[in-house]
């Protein structure tokens, strides 16, 4: 029989006492200290991810003063935070966890639905909205709707999701809004050269495959363990099987 450790009866040994007293003597008992860094590094190693960040239980919050909502954190630098304005149409950046912010200028869409950041060094950001998908790199916004057909009825590209493969930032997936009646039948795309400096040279391939001819890709995510993309649509949740092109339904 397995030994049961009830949640209301924690196990404290001499080791736990030693660690607690060590923290107490160091005066670091809350937001910083050597054990916090050790925990984050050990947890990241155990879960086989690059980085991990520990938080408290949500009873206290730090205020960041940007005129926006935090949307994307560069994965290779936990101090870099990007925010998109609510009172303005500007994008802001902070390199010190939100203590101070710099205005990076206006973003080129009216409705910013989802953003993804893949590099703190270049501050490369992908943003979706009513005019399709745009990339911010080296301080410049680029229209990335190359070879993606415009909706013939609405005369627009309503992009609503984007996902960057952080292991290979040349690989990016896009999800669009495809309504019934044949207005758009291609609404999920993949690029293998999305990090090209020349924005016009980036190409997109339709990977709708066996999905319905109309749908909305509300969210996208890439599994860091096997690079498989997952999408959430109004028809259900799916994953793209690699290296095959068949898209399989997952549990809803």
Explain this structure:
- The protein has 252 residues and is mainly beta.
- The chain folds into two domains: 14-47, no CATH class; 68-249, Methylamine Dehydrogenase, Chain H (7 Propeller).
- The chain has two helices and 16 strands.
- The strands form three sheets. Strands 9, 10, 11, 12, 13, 14, 15 and 16 form an eight-stranded antiparallel beta sheet that branches.
- The chain starts with 13 loop residues before the first helix and ends with a strand.
- The mean pLDDT is 75.
Task: Describe the SSE topology.
Elements lengths: L13 H13 L7 H14 L20 E6 L7 E5 L4 E5 L7 E5 L8 E5 L4 E6 L2 E6 L2 E4 L15 E6 L7 E7 L9 E4 L13 E2 L8 E8 L6 E5 L2 E5 L6 E3 L3
Antiparallel strand pairs: 1-2, 2-3, 3-4, 5-6, 6-7, 7-8, 9-10, 10-11, 10-13, 11-12, 13-14, 14-15, 15-16
List keywords for this structure.
11% helix, 8-stranded antiparallel β-sheet, 16 strands, mainly beta, 252 residues, 33% strand, 2 domains, single chain, globular, 4-stranded antiparallel β-sheet, Methylamine Dehydrogenase, Chain H
